[in-house]
Design goal:
Blueprint lengths: L23 H9 L4 E4 L6 H11 L3 E5 L3 H13 L4 E4 L5 H12 L5 E4 L7 H7 L4 E6 L14 H4 L1 H7 L4 E6 L4 H11 L5 E4 L7 E6 L4 H13 L4 E5 L3 H11 L7 E4 L5 H13 L4 E4 L12 E6 L6 H8 L9 E6 L4 H12 L3 H13 L9 H8 L5 H13 L3 E5 L5 E5 L15 H14 L7 E3 L1 H7 L4 H11 L5 E4 L5 E5 L13 H23 L4 H9 L11 H8 L11 H17 L6 H8 L5 H5 L16 H13 L3 E7 L2 E6 L1 H7 L13 H10 L7 E4 L5 E4 L5 E3 L17 H6 L29 E2 L2 E2 L18 H10 L4 H7 L4 H13 L12 H13 L5 H6 L7 H10 L1
Parallel strand pairs: 1-6, 1-7, 2-4, 2-5, 3-4, 5-6, 8-13, 9-11, 9-12, 10-11, 12-13
Antiparallel strand pairs: 14-18, 15-16, 15-17, 19-20, 21-22, 22-23, 24-25
Helix pairs in contact: 1-2, 13-16, 13-20, 13-33, 14-16, 15-16, 17-19, 23-24, 23-27, 23-28, 24-26, 30-32, 32-35
Length: about 900
């Protein structure tokens, strides 16, 4: 039985430490208790100690799966300096060295053995693990397990099967970034048993987070130069594309006092290695890079990280920003936010989740190629099919086809061949004729080569196997090909470079198991993550708090040092209020949030403030806001005070301000805001609101009763409405329970219980939406049939005013219904929808490009428009690519 050190703290001196960092002890205790563990901890948070210390605390060996050779070496070097027995086994070692270290592992000479995931496909290594005392499996950068992670590698996805072949040892998976979807994939693929999950330590007190918003590309360049000149030392500048990296290096040449170079995946391996070594040694203090640079970069003295473009997710941003200040000293993270950068990220998302049609086109093409394996680059496939997606999109199509079991992607390893035997039979020799002595001899040699790795592709050097079997290679190759007539034997002869092997040419595309509905769901999830980045860039709240809430860190708090916190400190507090009525302030806050919720995130704070205060402004009337039940409920309050109230609600996280259209920030309610509206939160607003706002609200709404939810002794919930009107929970159709409901169900949550809402909703004539059905989910496309549409009475025009047809198209699109929904529900074609939206824009209704155009389409049109600024419309139309119609161009122009 393995022995374990009783007090893990006693081992800290072995690592040169005196105490644990935040969150480490809880993770280590769970591991030492024998539990499978999932640890989500930020870059620089001390993940490595979470498995290294338990490895030292118990008998046996910990195998560490690591994606980068350089990272393995750094880790082992650091452990060796501390006299902790550790080693790595990878392709940088000669065969003799690999065998020597494997023998040492069997003898128990090491506590930690670092390997790449591909090593688990080595029959020699797997046989050795059966003779070694494997106590634990640690998987670093575990998000690579998920095909939805940013750094997906196929061999990571096979770790579940490999773990089973290791005897399902206790496993700890560690990563600095993992969404809920990725966390689910990690647990499912590894088959972890009720893992202890820890999400902690995301606060980095020494990092100063800052977002600047340049008005143009030239201003962005100037701000970057200024930032680098005012921040000495080493740092990284991240950009979205290779082209941007090269542009920035040219820009900085002669403009800053330090040498600078770029790093991206398009550079030759030897160049990337040299750049990384120069950066780590300090010879090259500033590096401009795509996200290809970073995993395993453990340079403690980075004084800054700058983002020239927005990243695609908060996970990516914080992982990259978190590389600054690992030594605990003050460091700065600046993000240059330009709204148009989101189109780059939208293009990446579109490529990550290719359409059914493109996947099918690529599959049918591969089936038509007679060669096996098919030695074609991604660019060659793109050019052959004339596809409008990038090479990364084609790679993702291949990902899907490989996961569906249709193809296998191969990389040559010094001109090696590959064999796979997929059978539960002890031997396949008995399936061969007794007089086929040579084939039986070859089959025996292949089975010995594969060993325990049945079902896995095993690479081998053809000439070595031929020598072992005392045959000529050409003869061996011929007999192996004959053996592939057995269904269980699959063989790929030697090839150079990159190749694709079709596993079954006869399978039709419709037979492949690819869940395109799930792909679409995940695609929309990526768009939401991108929106979270935009929310982060435009928020007035503490940026650290925004990040901690995003990751669900239970210890979240204000950093009081980011740019927003500093601005908040500098804002004049104003005189202390002479009047302080918390009920009045709470009532006004609930009314304001009710109004925000009813505008469905389509308007900014100014027009919402006008609506709440009963303004007769033209826009309020034009958009039908005067018919909302919250119209004028804050009448008598100055519009500036109403705007200040909304600002405060945004700052405190009850609402969020998002810039979905350039220079048009829009306000929407958050789950936290729903709790306040629902009466489940009863904060002391007087103590936190600006004094002048408290004074105004206390005077204007003295005596108003806010909405509260309280539990009576018999657990029956009473709903108390403003102005003292009471209504029992038993008498409402939908019980308000915002504490457990997802944010996307906003409408259902607020319909029955918001201040000022007393009207019954009404369906459009002839349409029967179910009572209580959430507005957000009323219309979902299921195959080719859409569910009925529904609009609230408050959103309808006055009965005496008949609206033209284009109004209803605009109205429904603005409410979030898709063009497909309109085609089905209104029986109009796509061209008519474009015509109606163009008419709406001509009649001063606001239209947004994102309603009808993908990020890729909008970006392509924008380039044509920008390059031909003074050209006539006919000239611009002539330059459109075939996949973009003139109506799309005209619609885009109306959106500007």
């Amino acid at each position: 039985m393995n022995k374990t050190v009783a007090d893990p703290e006693s081992l800290l001196p072995r690592f040169g430490l005196t105490k644990f960092r935040r969150g480490q002890r809880n993770v280590i205790d769970a591991i030492l208790a024998g539990r499978d563990t999932l640890c989500i901890m930020p870059t620089g948070g001390g993940k490595s100690l979470c498995y290294q210390l338990p490895a030292l605390a118990r008998d046996g060996i910990t195998i560490v799966i690591s994606p980068l050779i350089a990272l393995m070496k750094d880790q082992v070097d650091s452990l060796s300096e501390l006299d902790i027995p550790a080693t790595f086994i990878n392709s940088t070692l000669a065969s003799q060295q690999q065998h020597a270290r494997i023998d040492g592992m069997i003898r128990g000479e090491y506590k930690l053995v670092y390997i790449a995931p591909e090593r688990l496909r080595s029959s020699t290594f797997m046989r050795a693990t059966g003779r070694a005392n494997i106590a634990m499996l640690a998987i670093d950068e575990a998000h690579c397990i998920s095909q939805w992670g940013h750094d997906f590698r196929p061999d990571y996805a096979r770790l579940g099967r490999m773990r089973s072949r290791l005897g399902n040892p206790q496993t700890v998976a560690l990563t600095a970034t993992a969404t809920e979807l990725v966390r689910q994939d990690i647990v499912q693929i590894l088959e972890l048993e009720e893992p202890a999950t820890f999400i902690s330590g995301f606060a980095r007190e020494n990092l100063y987070l800052r977002v600047d918003s340049p008005g143009s590309n030239s201003e962005k360049d100037e701000q970057l130069i200024s930032f680098l000149n005012s921040h000495p030392g080493c740092g990284i500048v991240y950009a979205s594309t290779r082209k941007s990296c090269e542009h920035i290096v040219e820009l900085l040449d002669g403009q800053i006092d330090r040498p600078v170079t770029f790093y991206h995946a398009g550079l030759p391996p030897e160049t990337r290695k040299k750049v990384q070594e120069d950066f780590m040694s300090g010879r090259m203090p500033v590096i401009v890079a795509t996200n290809a640079f970073g995993m395993g970069i453990d340079k403690a003295d980075l004084r800054f990280v700058a983002h020239y473009n927005i990243p695609g997710s908060i996970e990516a941003y914080y992982q990259e920003a978190g590389r600054a200040g690992r030594d605990g000293k003050p460091s700065e993270c600046m993000l240059l936010y330009s709204y148009q950068d989101k189109f780059i990220q939208e293009f990446f998302i579109e490529n990550s989740y290719p359409s059914r049609q493109i996947v099918k086109e690529i599959y049918e093409f591969l089936r038509s190629v007679k060669a096996d394996p098919i030695e074609m680059t991604l660019m060659e496939i793109k050019d052959e099919l004339d596809l409008d997606i990038g090479t990364s999109g084609i790679a993702n199509c291949e990902n899907l086809l490989e996961k569906a079991g249709a193809i296998e992607r191969l990389d040559s390893r010094e001109n090696m061949a590959a064999i796979r035997i997929d059978s539960e039979l002890t031997t396949l020799i008995d399936l061969l004729p007794r007089d086929a002595r040579v084939q039986r001899h070859v089959m025996r040699g292949l089975e010995k080569l594969v060993g325990p790795l049945r079902g896995e592709r095993v690479m081998f050097v053809p000439q070595k196997l031929a020598d072992r079997l005392e045959m000529k290679w050409q003869t061996l190759n011929r007999h192996i090909r004959e053996l592939t007539r057995l269904d269980a034997v699959d063989y790929v002869p030697p090839f150079r470079g990159r190749a694709i092997h079709l596993l079954c040419r006869d399978k039709r595309f419709a037979e492949l198991d690819i869940d395109f509905a799930e792909l679409e769901r995940r695609k929309q999830s990526e768009f939401k993550k991108l929106q979270s980045v935009i929310d982060f860039c435009t928020t007035r709240r503490c940026r650290q708090l925004q990040i901690l809430e995003y990751f669900g860190d239970p210890e979240r708090h204000l950093c009081r040092s980011c740019d927003n916190c500093k601005k908040a400190k500098q804002r004049p507090a104003g005189p202390a209020p002479k009047h302080a009525d918390n009920d009045a302030c709470l009532y006004a806050a609930q009314v304001a949030l009710s109004g925000i919720a009813r505008t469905h995130g389509r308007f900014g704070k100014t027009i919402i403030a006008q609506m709440l205060t009963g303004s007769t402004a033209k826009k309020v009337e034009r958009f039908g806001l005067s018919r909302l039940s919250t119209f004028g409920l804050l009448k008598g309050l100055k519009q500036n005070d109403a705007s200040s109230l909304i600002d405060w609600l945004v700052d405190e996280g009850y609402a969020v301000q998002s810039e979905t259209t350039r220079y048009r920030p829009q306000v929407k309610i958050t789950p936290r805001g729903l709790e306040l509206v629902g009466g489940r939160l009863q904060p002391d607003l007087v103590a936190h609101m600006p004094g002048p706002v408290v004074n105004s609200l206390s005077i204007k709404f003295k005596g108003k009763v806010p909405h509260r939810v309280e539990e009576s002794p018999d657990d029956e919930i009473e709903i108390v409405r403003p102005d003292g009107e009471e209504k029992s929970a038993a008498s409402v159709d939908v019980e308000l329970d915002v504490s457990s409901s997802p944010a996307e169900e906003v409408t259902e949550e607020i319909e029955e219980n918001l201040p000022g809402e007393e009207e019954e909703e009404e369906n459009l004539p002839g349409e029967g939406a179910a009572p209580g059905q959430p507005e957000e989910s009323i219309l979902e496309s299921t195959g080719s049939v859409a569910k009925p549409l529904r609009i609230h009475r408050e959103d309808l025009p006055h009965p005496e005013k008949v609206q033209p047809s284009f109004y209803w198209t605009w109205r429904l699109i603005a409410d979030g219904y898709s063009p497909l929904h309109l085609q089905q529900a209104r029986d109009i074609d796509l061209d008519t929808i474009y015509d109606h939206l163009i008419q709406a824009a001509d009649n001063d209704y606001e239209v947004e490009a994102s309603w009808m155009l993908s990020g890729h389409e909008a970006s392509a049109i924008a380039k044509i428009v920008d390059s031909g600024e003074n050209k006539r419309l006919t000239a611009l139309i002539a330059e459109l690519p075939a996949e973009i119609s003139p109506k799309q161009l005209m619609f885009f122009l109306k959106c500007q």
